[in-house]
Amino acid sequence: MCEYCGCRQVEPIAQLMDEHFALLDLGGAIRRALRDKGGGAATELLQEFRELLHRHVRLEERGVFAAMKAEGEFVDQVLELEQEHDDLEQALAELDLTDGNVVEVVDRLLAELSEHIDRENLGIFPVAVVSLGATGWEIVTRAHEEQQAAAS
Fold first, then answer.
1. Could you state, in order of their start, the residue ranges of all structural domains in the chain?
2. How far apart are CA 8 and CA 14, in angstroms?
3. How many beta carbons lie within 10 A of that of residue 53, not counting itself?
4. In terms of Cα–Cα distance, which of 94, 115, 100 is closest to 46?
5. What CATH architecture is 9-151?
6. Can you give the pLDDT of all 152 residues of the chain as single tens digits?
7. Would 132 disulfide with which of 20, 54, 81, 136, CB 3.0-4.6 Å?
8. What SS3 string covers 52-103?
């Protein structure tokens, strides 16, 4: 991840990036648990991963992505990222930890997630920082505030 544009200095973007790192860390823990034949641990970690991913995707789509679409900025790219969110959540819902190929499936999903995160961290987030106007940032801020209120 680069630090050139300064987008990590913008709190909502920093939060989303931090969640990306948490997802990647959890993904690595799932991978290790599966390789070590720790089915119980993998099941618990996968549930934690799904929950974090769901909260993260909801925040991203109701915040930065909604703001970008509202302002007509990079709409096609945002729609593509949203479709990738749907695809990942569907793949996780269908994931069978007892499948003999589960390690390979998880490896593929995590590789796709890593590429997706790079497109957000290095693409759409820096674009959002420099292109969103006041109305866009109001959408982002409201989404983050609503999520915090719901978590309280």
1. 9-151
2. 4
3. 20
4. 94
5. Up-down Bundle (1.20)
6. 556 667 889 999 999 999 999 999 999 999 999 999 877 899 999 999 999 999 999 999 999 999 999 999 999 999 999 999 999 999 999 999 999 999 999 999 999 999 999 999 999 999 999 999 999 999 999 999 999 999 98
7. 136
8. HHHHHHHHHHHCHHHHHHHCCCCHHHHHHHHHHHHHHHHHHHHCCCCCCCHH
Burial-class residue 36 by CB neighbours within 10 Å (0-12, 13-18, 19+): exposed
**Token duo for residue 129:** 């920082």
Residue whose token pair is 């959002």: 128
